Amino acid sequence: MKRWCNDEPRFWARVDRRGPNDCWLWTRSVNSSGYGQMQYSGRVRRTHQLAWSFVNGPIPPGLQVLHRCDNPPCCNPAHLFLGTHADNMRDMAQKGRAARAQSPLTSEQVREIQALAHAGLGRREIAGRFGVHPDTVSKISRGRAWKPLTEEPAAAAPLRQPLSTDSIAEIRRLLSAGLSRSEIARRFGVNPTTVGRIRMGRIGAAA
Ligand SMILES: [Zn+2]
Question: I need a surface site. Which of 1, 52, 71, 199 has the fewest CB within 10 A?
């Protein structure tokens, strides 16, 4: 029987153990669902189950080891709890919702998260409200070069003043004469984006 790793110290050596509240990620192979896996005593076992068992003993029949942190490769025993199959299904449904909510954080949500963190709300509380991971909240609240995943609507660069048909024609003339967008924008007191739109025929085409 092939035993790659059949004792606890070697198991923990493959886990990136961090602070007590952080996720401790499995550093080796994961399955298609993202759960860490390891050959242990001749069987392929999920590493979060092993982690729970090393601390708490055998998993009682009929129960499953679930993640509080929605992070499949996490092996931090503090993030693991026992639940029934029904709990697991409910948990997965919540994870699905969290995953959907996680991708598009608008700039407005980012500002709101920063405001709530500044007001002293716990990062877990905030994470729950926005359906994101607490680590994401930490990064945002520390102002770590966070770029919103969704750009602001294109309307963020409105015309500062209505451009007359003549001005638009003049801008087109200057563009074809080779003047830069920023130079033209400065002359007409508009945003360079507006000049770009005129060049692409998005403004003034039907005028
Ligand atoms: Zn975790």
Answer: 1
| Residue 192 CB-density burial (10 A; 0-12 exposed, 13-18 middle, 19+ buried) | middle
Q: What is the mean pLDDT of residues 59-80?
A: 92
- The confidence score (pLDDT) of residue 99 equals 53
What are the tens digits of pLDDT across the range 87-141? 877 777 776 655 544 455 777 778 888 888 888 888 888 887 777 788 888 888 8
Q: Which amino acid is at 49?
A: Q
Q: Residue 79 Cα, ligand 1 centroid: separation in angstroms?
A: 5
What distance in angstroms lies between residue 134's CA and the mean position of ligand 1's atoms?
10
Ligand 1 centroid – CA 106 distance (Å):
25
Alpha carbon of 31 to those of 36, 56, 75, 84, 138: distances in Å? Answer: 6, 24, 14, 22, 28
Output the CA 113–ligand 1 centroid distance in Å.
Answer: 21
Q: Domains for the chain: give ranges and CATH numbers.
A: 8-98 (3.90.75), 103-141 (no CATH), 154-199 (no CATH)
Distance in angstroms (rounded) separating the CA atoms of residues 8 and 110 = 41
pLDDT exceeds 50 at position 152: no
Query: Which amino acid is residue 118, in one-letter code?
Result: H
Q: How far is the CA of 147 from the centre of ligand 1 (A)?
A: 24
Q: Which two tokens stand for residue 108?
A: 């407005």
C-alpha of residue 76 to centroid of ligand 1, in Å: 6
